[in-house]
Each structure stands twice: as structure tokens, then as C-alpha cells.
Write the C-alpha cells for this entry.
Amino acid sequence: MLIRQIALVSQTDSVSLAQLTLASAAIQKQVARDLRPIWNITATVDAFATLKDVPLGYWPVVLQDEIKFNAQGIHLNKKNGDPFALVEVSTNWSLTTSHECLEMLVDPSGNRTVASNSVKPGQGRVNYLVEVCDPSESAKFAYTVNGVLVSDFYTPEFFDPVTSSGVRYSFVGAVKQPKQVLDGGYLSWFDPASEHAFQLLVSGSKKTFRDLGKVKGGFGNAGTLRSLTDNDEPTVKHRLKALREGAPKGLLLTPEVAAAGAGRKAMMSSQRAIGDELEGNAALLQAQINEVLSAA
């Protein structure tokens, strides 16, 4: 089986290589333990100090203070067709990084679609963009791996025609039925009949259907459907709110960019707790190593 390889690189002083390594280990475990059995994708996720250290063939995810897209994260394609992603550092940067990694792995080109009946009344069958984290992308539906916040994602059964008992529609089980969009999430699709792209955005109990307009030249000749939705301002604002709000307290990695007040204190306390746990584990192992070397 082809092994896909992702490289995490921090180009900001807000995220150290040590913090990035913790995140990469968590996302690697998420990919191997959670994503692989569901989507049949094998991948590695590794942290590197600089882009110059990244071997050929890796798909980079680059963290920066600002990414100039008015977005928390964005998934793009290099001129040779290989994917890469940019992540803007925030209090939930590990969540965004996980989100971008998972979606790159499942749909590297940004054009993978699944045909199913439209959630919009009056439409027939449409082509849904396969963005596995979008419907449940809000921080409140995230979970933790090694104490690091990572994104929920839907399963291939998300596009089933009917709801079935005992079927998992997202990894954490927050999505209860096919094509369900949760608070803070969204869903994108292309309607072949009108040649328009559409979205469903959900905020609380409010559902908003949006017509993004006609895709010039047809879907196949318009770059990627993902790029169309990523550059849409209402979509960006919707995503920012979902990714930044509702995260469980004490599960964040970056005290340098934490909000003031109680949020910052909770984050710093969490960082110390993770550090104490790792230091204790390392101290036990080092003591055993010293004992072995002394006895040799």
C-alpha cells in the first residue's frame, strides 16, 4: 500500500519544534489508529525544523503567524500537483493542523466528490466535495490524542442514502445520520443541473443554504471545488468561529498566543501538566538507562 507522508513545519516563534513534535506524534497516532481503518489510508506525520529539512515527496503543513487568507487553515496544491497546507497559529492550532492533515490525506487534489441526493430541497443528485472534517469541524466536537486536541472526521458512510442503526457516521459519533451538518460545520457540493456550487452552513439550529454561483467551464475545468469554498468570505468567517470557540479547557498547546485571563491560565496550566507528565516518564526511563550502563 502506498504510504503518504506529511511534514509539519513551524515558521513562527509561537510554536517551538518541541511543541510541533508533540502535535505530530498525536496526529500520527490519530492517522494510524483512527483514520486508517476507516478510510484505508496509510501515512506518516513528522515534524521538521525547517522546510529545507523536508525530504522530497512529503506533503508540507506549514504553521505561520499569519497566512494572508483570512482563514485558520487552507489546503492548496503546488505547481506539480502535490498538496500542501498553511495553518495560522491560534489557541487551537493543533485542531486546525489535524483538520488540514486529515483532509489532505483523504482528498489530496481537492476535487474528490461523492454523488448523493442533495440536502437542499428541490435539488436532485449532486456531487459532494469530500472534506472529512467540515461537517463536525467545531472545536466542541474535537477529541484528544496524547492530550492534544485533534479534529473529528466523518466516515464513508456519511454519504449513505438512509440512516442505519449501529453505523458510525463520524469518528467520535457526533454525526448521527448521513449528510448531517453540526453546529459550526458546513457541507459543499456541485449541482450538475445548474453548474453552480452550493453550501449548507449551520450555526446553532439555523441552517443557511448558499449559492456560490456558476462554476465557469464546469467543475472539472475550474481548478478545485475546495479552492472555491476556501476563498469564500462567509465560509471563512464561519470556519474561524467554529475552530476558535468551544474547545475543552486545558487541551491546548500554545500558551504564547492564548487569550488573556482565565483562558490563558487554563492553557498554561495544561501545558505544565503535559510537561510534568513527560518529564516524569523521561526521568524514570533515564534512571533505568543509567542503571543498565552502570551495570555493564
